[in-house]
Design a protein that fits this description.
It contains 8 helices and no strands. The protein has 210 residues and is mostly helical. The chain has a single domain, classed as Up-down Bundle (Rhomboid-like fold), CATH 1.20.1540. Helix 4 crosses helix 5. The chain is globular and about 45 Å long. The relative contact order is 0.13. About 2% of the residues have low confidence.
Length: 210
């Protein structure tokens, strides 16, 4: 496979994370420029009208600060998952998108819950625990980098502020852990080009010492 074909395949892997990011920004711009109040389409627990929020809440944000805080980890982690875990990536996305909302609807506070942070938490814990289960240092490193950059993530699962949907964060994190366990045997670990080069160097050094 030449470099051009390899780059095309790598770009295909990040089309979905980029498309989702473009969608939530398009919705946010529409909300801003047309003075729309889309929070009413968020998830309102234990109400019939709130059921739709399971599907719509992750697409809606309270403002540009809110969406921006989710965008970078969504893109960074999403690309990581679609690159390292091609077989499980779509399943992890839809699980992290829907399952947290289902649990929030059943036991969440009586308030509108919006934002894609549940998806972010699902991504982080999936990558981290997949790395531990598979002993994949790349996945662990990726999750640790985001956790380091967004150190407040760990506090987001605690009920410290009524303005933050900690329920979405908590169930997003639990969903990511669950996904890491059930998909632990998919996407078998493979060696990448730089690892093959390292192995060749080690083999050459060994032969030189013989």
């Amino acid at each position: 496979m030449d470099n051009t074909e390899s780059k095309e395949n790598q770009f295909k892997l990040i089309i979905f994370p980029l498309s989702f990011l473009a969608l939530i920004w398009l919705i946010q711009f529409a909300q801003y420029f047309f003075s729309l109040h889309l929070a009413k389409y968020g998830l309102l627990p234990q109400t019939t009208e709130g059921l739709m929020g399971i599907f719509t809440a992750p697409l809606i944000h309270a403002g540009f600060n809110h969406i921006f805080s989710n965008s970078i980890p969504l893109l960074f982690l999403g690309c990581g998952i679609f690159y390292f875990y091609k077989e499980a990536a779509y399943k992890v996305f839809f699980m992290s998108y829907l399952i947290p909302g289902i649990f929030v609807w059943f036991i969440g506070r009586e308030s509108y819950h919006i934002g894609s942070s549940g998806l972010v938490y699902g991504y982080v814990t999936f990558l981290f625990f997949s790395g531990i289960i598979r002993r994949d240092n790349r996945a662990i490193a990726l999750a640790l980098i985001v956790t380091f950059l967004y150190g407040g993530l760990i506090w987001g699962v605690l009920p410290l502020s009524r303005e933050i949907s900690w329920e979405y964060h908590l169930f997003g994190a639990l969903t990511g852990i669950f996904a890491a366990i059930i998909f632990r045997k998919s996407d078998p670990m493979k060696k990448y080009d730089w690892e093959d080069e390292e192995d060749e160097d080690e083999l050459e050094q060994t032969e030189n010492h013989l």
